[in-house]
Amino acid sequence: VAIGDGRYPFPNIIEAHQETRLELLADDELVFTEHAVWSLDATPGVNHTGNPMHFTFTTLGRTKVHGLSFATADPVTESFEVTVKYVRRELRDLSVTDRRAYFDALGVIYSVGQEAGEKKYGPNYRSAAWLVREHLEGAGSKMCDHWHDDAGFVNHHIGITIQMERSIQAVDPRVCSHYWDYTIDALADYDYSESIIFDEDWFGSSSPRSDK
Q1: Are 49 and 38 a contacting pair, CB within 8 Å?
Q2: By C-alpha distance, which of 206, 207, 202 is closest to 100?
């Protein structure tokens, strides 16, 4: 099924930093493993064997995949383009491992200051304090709220989300800015405050005891 019913210009999506399974078929059957050879533009000059073959793409953008098999009298060849992207998911759709990696990366930007974070993780690092300050400086004035009036709402919030995403990816390149779809809870037969999103082993206590 074409992604987005064919509305997007990339029919084959591969998720960055997640293991991808590639299969070479002949008459809808897997060809013999020892006769399958893969070459990827992502790893020029390197051949990969095995069928299916598992590979983790780490470079974003378009790239090509080539498969070749000598298992039949007529060699089976396949060559196609894939687009490697980060995929944002609803938090409850993440595996336990992926959700933990996301929370761990968030934990870093909340606990490591801007200067120390930039030294350790590079120029894309933004601490939580830096992001909160940016939001307050743009939206804290009742006289002139640049962030929540008219078209500024979408532009500013998309922008700061990208900054946060690049920051947590500087900490761990496997993660991205996942989201909470609260309409799931709005339609459920319970008060939204009972959602698993508020469990303490997710984002921590919603009423922490702290004198800071």
Answers
A1: yes
A2: 202
